[in-house]
Amino acid sequence: MDVNQSQQFKHRIAFGVWINDFRNDPLKHEDWPCVEIDTQTQNDFKGMMKFLKENGFTAVDIFGFLANHDWPENVHEVVTDERKKTVRKLIKIAHENNLKVIYGLGVYSWGFDSIIKNNPAVRGTSLQAMCGSKKESRQYMRNVVDFVGENFDFDGFHLEVADQGRCRCNLCSGETDVSYFNRLNRETAEYIRSRWPATFLLVNTSGYLPWGDTINPEEYASVYELGKCIDVIIDGGNHGLFIAEEDRKMFIENLPCDYGTSGGFWVYPPQRWDRQRWFLPNFYHTAGHLEKLFMDGGRACEIYLGPLLNPGMELTLWCIGNYIQDIRKNPTAVLHNAIEKLYRPKNHTYTFKLAEFIGQAESAFFNNWSPMRQPGIPEELSDGIQSLFAWSETKPERATPGELFLEPLFGTHPGFPSYLVVHMTPGGRENYKKTLLSLVKGIDEIANGFHEREKVHRIRTCIENVLHDIEAVRILQSSSQKKP
Ligand SMILES: [Zn+2]
Questions:
Q1: Neighbours of 198 (CB within 10 A)
Q2: Distance of CA 76 to the CA centre of its chain
Q3: pLDDT over 80 (residue 348)
Q4: What residues flank ion ligand 1 with Cβ within 5 A?
Q5: What domains does the chain contain, in order, with CATH numbers?
Q6: How remote is the C-alpha of 145 from its chain's centroid?
Q7: Residues 26-45: pLDDT tens digits?
Q8: What's the gap in Å between 167 CA and the centre of ligand 1?
Q9: 108 alpha carbon – ligand 1 mean position (Å)
């Protein structure tokens, strides 16, 4: 490759997130996050690793290889020997595709529910996060690290400490959220490095603060301390970035490790939905964010994956992967390349026409959505995460996606298309519908221009399914307004 390394993101990390989030066949009746590994999981994993290699990603970061909520008291009993073999096989597949495999590790949380329930010695004020001031908690954390490190050939860890809250007992509550979470991450990172010095370490700050808030520059020093013992810090930006953009350049200059985000905007893959139920290509939006991040000195990104069977997802991931290898590229030229490769147009005119269509489909959503959450939505039409936005009630414009949930995250059946309500007004929805109707016509006019007809047809199916959902929202909303 002749790309000057100074023009590329150094850490081009693909984020699973969970082992089944990018599978091509939905788990319609399994609550999220399902960590079962079946034949479909393995096949889609294999397909995704090949895709990531071809599109220049350097690492894949995945949660759920071994556990979701529950490490047992004896952590080595977490999985069967057969599961261990399967996980080793998956790691090998990723390595064969030149990808580092980063193990998604809950730090003091995400995995300790049973241990906390059964063991008062680690319990503070939270049922999901161990007390951060007790030596017993630190020992459990080390037991998990030892088990993962001694049994598997992972290349690194993603440390996730904050997104299930924290302990606020008398011993812990003296520390601010930022310094508390940084301390637990630092202690865990130092322990990992003491055992495996070459391990790649990434900290994701999701949950460090309520969404919409930013880290006070007076607390940057504690982030810099953490930065000395890790490789990358990801300020995901799920609903706003924690490092204020106006301070970012200065922050990055002083940070001992690399800094990155999750690309500004992404669709959280809906685990229980049909893979052709949405159409949200978002490469232009993401490219704009990534370019600014790069200019400010950001050299890492952690890009959320999703099922490649969804054409908007496949195109967006293809384009992002290629763009972050050389950010001097013109995003439209990248999109043209993606179309040539994925849709095999019969001539260049069709490349331009489909690219224009994809741009229009992206604008159809972004011109009509409401980044701010719509207030007063009845529970049954919402995404179930309203409680996370308490801080932003006074500044709702600061807690915006980031991460777009299409259906409620939790549940045991395909959920209501809440994104069309939480992030759209009735007027926006009506405009979105009108534009989508014209896009159906547009895709029909060019469908014959591609060798990959089936793929073009999939785009059409997706748009039709969004139109069905818009109609479903209209019916439900009018019936819920009629309720006394
Ligand atoms: Zn505590």
A1: 7
A2: 28
A3: yes
A4: 124, 131, 133, 167, 169, 172
A5: 5-328 (3.20.20.80), 352-482 (no CATH)
A6: 23
A7: 999 999 999 999 999 999 99
A8: 5
A9: 11
Report how far ligand 1's centroid is from the alpha carbon of 45 (Å).
38
Q: For residue 482, is pLDDT > 70?
A: no
What is the pLDDT of the chain when averaged over all its residues?
95
Q: Which pLDDT score, from 0 to 100, does residue 1 have?
A: 47
pLDDT digits (tens, 9 = 90+) for 243-252: 999 999 999 9
Tens of pLDDT, residues 293-328: 999 999 999 999 999 999 999 999 999 999 999 999
Q: Which residue has the tokens 């777009």?
A: 404
What is the rounded distance in angstroms from the CA atom of residue 194 to the CA atom of residue 380? 49
- In angstroms, the Cα distances linking 212 to 167, 175, 390, 391 are 22, 21, 10, 7
Distance 207 CA to ligand 1 centre (A): 17
* Centre of ligand 1 from the C-alpha of residue 351, in Å: 58
In the predicted structure, residue 130 carries a pLDDT above the cut 70: yes
Distance between Cα 169 and ligand 1 center (Å) = 4
Residue count (the chain): 484
C-alpha torsion angle, residues 295, 299, 304, 306 (rounded to 10): 90
In the reported structure, the alpha carbon of residue 297 is separated from the centroid of ligand 1 by a whole-number distance in angstroms of: 36
Question: pTM (2 decimals)?
Answer: 0.96
Ligand 1 centroid–CA 130 distance in Å is 7
Q: How far is the CA of 474 from the centre of ligand 1 (A)?
A: 47
Is the bond preceding 371 in cis, omega lying within 30 degrees of 0? no
Q: Mapping DSSP to helix (H, G, I), strand (E, B) and coil, where does residue 186 land?
A: helix
